[in-house]
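Re: How this chain folds, sequence and tokenised backbone to follow
Notation: Tokens come from a learned vocabulary of local backbone shapes, not from coordinates.
Start of record: The labelled sequence and token lines come straight after this line.
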Amino acid sequence: MVIQDYTVFNVSSNKLIFSGAPNVDLVPGYYVVASDSNIKDFSSNGDNIKVSATDPATGQIKTADFKISGGCNCHVEKVSGPDTVAFD
């Protein structure tokens, strides 16, 4: 599914995160929330993240909350949040 207005916002730091995994071919309908290239965007204790996207066919907006850690660790890690977010 193609979506519009996909955003990843770090609520803890009040900053928009430019997520992505360069040179990675993703399965259609799957989107990257954060990759190891974002490690400095997150604290080692974890930050609250809000992800939002719009279904262009219906205009429905979906949001999901995550907690992601980074900081001095060697990898970004999801602490909590859903594995899948689907439009109705």
In short: The chain has a mean pLDDT of 88.
